[in-house]
Amino acid sequence: MIEVPRGSFLKRDLSGRISFVSPLPCPFNYGAVPTHLGMEGDLLDALVLGPRLRFGSHTRVSAWGAVTLTDRGMSDDKLICSDRRPTPADIQAVLRFFRFYARCKGLLNRWRRRPGRNACEGWCSVQAALARARPLTEAGPSRPVPVPF
Fold this sequence. Notes:
The protein is 21% helix and 35% strand.
């Protein structure tokens, strides 16, 4: 489920309301897996490589790995998805983005006086990320879960 199309400056919540305007465009399609909760309790994040996808669109692609990001001391996996196996250059671009993002988030958190470590912990397997996630069940949340970006 795409929440931030590639090249967009806008972060939207599940209702479509703008929740954040970024100073930089997102270099990837960014969204969430609507069937799993990540470690921080929100929907499991997913980054989709390839051409721009529309906000709110649903796509079915393979997950090839994951990147673990630590924000204010809380770990959060992001599945890396594509209709084809990512090249080494694709993987390096994703890691470069998340390392830069973690540094920017760390500076912003310091400015906001929000303590905790910020870092890109690197690449891990899909299996490891899914093992840390929780499947949503019928007994799960009864209202939409916000998607972090």
